[in-house]
Every structure is written in structure tokens, then in C-alpha cells.
Amino acid sequence: MKSIYLDHAASTPVHPEVAQEMMNVMTGQFGNASSVHAFGRSAKRTVSSARDRIAKYLGCHPDELVFTGGGTESDNLALFGVLAAMDGAGKHVVTSSIEHHAVLHACEELEKQGYRVTYLPVDGTGRVRAEDVEQALTEDTALISIMYANNEVGTVQPIREIGELARARGVLFHVDAVQALGAIPISLRDLPVDLMSFSAHKINGPQGIGALYVRRGVHLAPRLHGGLQEKKRRAGTENMAGIAGFAKAVQIASAHLEERREHDLMLRDTLIRLLEQEIGQDAFIVNGHPSEFLPHILNISFPATDTETLLMNLDLEGIAAASGSACTSGSLELSHVLQAMKLPQNVLRSAIRFSFGLGNTTEDMEYTAQKIATILRRLRIRS
Ligand code: PLP
């Protein structure tokens, strides 16, 4: 049976060159980057070289990057870290209702600690309005946290506009760029952003490693206490192989950004076109923004069925797709993102996320469209 992976927004296969780089580090180097002997110095060089390469691509200073255990930790470090460093000077946070749970659940925890959080609405395409951000700001606002692009529907947010008004009002701005990295160009030099979260496993790097960009001058209180690593911002022996793999993944992603974009757009268009042929354009609805979207994320509702039935049937045909956000799939609860977009119930309850990446081909799209048509026919006969 075929096996087609269309869940790259959840996690991606590690690129062979990344795996090789990590293998070289794991077998050739075992020192601790904090040790003063030659082994330690060599480990330190590996970590610094990786940091330099990632910083160069992102357009920031190497010392503005803090390595973390992934996107979730980066989001948590950003929110709790800057607020703790402010020591209660601002007790209000502005975020959106479509953030990843790494931000939303962190905000709920902040509320328990006495912070006030505004969860902004989005329009029907999943986009936050900059005017809403502006209106939500108060004298007490300490931080704005809005994602670069959404992980369920791919909608890209007006980050520059929000960043400019944050600057004008002197409010710190955090951006979760976990899905945007490797999909659209990011230049921190040109963006009015103070903190940005990244994760390696969404760009064909290893799981369990990520980074938080912290603009020079932004104070961040550590969440982990221990050694002096990461300029006292994140204690713990560095994940050297993970960091080296992350840098390799960033290098590969940056070298192939345009190529990947075109390939993903082609796959996306192909799947939509084939679905139109196979089941007719009235049988499905594409969710998200018509132009401001990440090319690798395609969210489609099939109102004749429901998410769970379709996902299970696709799985039986060897096709791996997703529902809702990655971390809640499996439990299949209704997506908070699609709910915030106020989609009709039948659209909300029948949405599937297809996300493309390394290894996907036009043939995969043909197979997927055919199988969807077969499944929908079978379900119609049964009902
Ligand atoms: N933020 C977004 C937008 C994501 O899509 C994800 C992962 O799905 C995360 C944060 C969490 O990243 P990680 O899995 O590296 O903890």
C-alpha cells in the first residue's frame, strides 16, 4: 500500500544531510561546550558556528539567539521571560484567539498569575486586524504576541503593521514564527519585532530543538536556572547535535526557499484542481486567506462528511493528513482556529489540513484526490 505523508506542518522528515551532520557531531564530538579543555572548546565551536549560521540567515546578531527545546519552550520563554523581567511593570498582554496552544495555554497561566490577557478575534480568513491590536492596547500593556502564520489554515498575519504600532506605543512584540520559518523569507534586521520563536522539526531538522530571538536590549528573565549557558538565559548543557542539525536545516531551507515555495504551490494547485475534477467544486471549501497564506498548508472542508471519518478513511488508504492543531489531533476536538474564524458548523466539523513538504510529488496529489473521491462515494452509498 502507498504511504503518503501530508502532515508536514506537524513534523517533517529529517533531511539526510541534517542526519549526517548530526551523526558526525554525535560520533565525533562528545565534549561539553562549557568545559575548558580541548574537547569542550571543540564543542563550543560547533555550537557557535551553528548559531552564527542561523543568525546570518535570520539577519540578527548571534547573541540575540537563545537555543531552546523547541517552539513550545521558545514561546513560553518569550512570554514568561519578558514579563518576569518587567517585574509587574505591565500587567496586560494582547494576543489572538488563533495562536498555537504553546501561547494560548501560557496566557491562561499568566491570567492565573494576575495578568489580564486580551484574545483578539480574527476575520473569516483567519487574519488578525492591526486596528484591533491598536484598540486593545492600554497604558498597562506589556507585550503583544501574534503568530507570523497560522499552523492550521496557513494564514499569514500583518506582522510588520502590528510591529510598527507596537514600536510607536513602546510595547514589546513577540512573534511565533514556527510555521513561517523555511516557508517565507524572514529578515529580522528589517522587521519591527522584539522576540521570535523557531523550531527545527518543522523544517526537516530534528525534534526537540528550537530558538528564541531576543532583540538586543530586551530583558529576559530565565525560566530554567542552573548553569550560565546561553548568556544566562537558558541553563542546561547545549543539545549540540540538535543545534548542529538545526543550523544545517536552516541552511538547506534558505538555499531552497523559492524552489520549495513553487513546488508547494504547484502541489496545492494540483490537489485543488484534481478535487474539482473528481468531486466537483461545490463539494469542498478551501479555508484560510485567498492570497496571504503559507504555500505548504492547505485546509479544506468536505461538508458531506466529517473530519474524523475522512481522516480515518484516508489513513486506511495510506494517506496521513491532520485535523485541528497538531497537538490536539488524535483527540479530534473542534479546532479553536476554525471556531474563531466563525465558520459554519458543517465546514468546521469537516476540515482537514493537508501540509506538503520534502518527498511529496504530483502523483501523491493524484492518488489523494482519487482516494478522497472514492471515500466520499463510498460514504454516500452507505448513508
Ligand atoms: N507554534 C506553532 C505555530 C506550531 O505550529 C508549533 C508546532 O506545531 C509550535 C509552536 C510548537 O513547536 P514545538 O513542537 O517545537 O514545541
From TrEMBL:
Enzyme class: transferase
EC number: 2.8.1.7
Domain of life: Bacteria
The Aminotransferase class V domain, residue ranges: 4-366
PROSITE patterns listed in its UniProt record: AA_TRANSFER_CLASS_5
Keywords assigned: Iron, Iron-sulfur, Metal-binding, Pyridoxal phosphate, Transferase
Reaction(s) the record says it catalyses: (sulfur carrier)-H + L-cysteine = (sulfur carrier)-SH + L-alanine
GO molecular function terms noted in the UniProt entry: cysteine desulfurase activity; iron-sulfur cluster binding; metal ion binding
Cofactor(s) the protein needs: pyridoxal 5'-phosphate
Pfam family, one: Aminotran_5
Regions that span the bilayer: none
Sequence similarity: Belongs to the class-V pyridoxal-phosphate-dependent aminotransferase family. NifS/IscS subfamily.
Protein's name according to its UniProt entry: cysteine desulfurase
Organism: Paenibacillus albilobatus
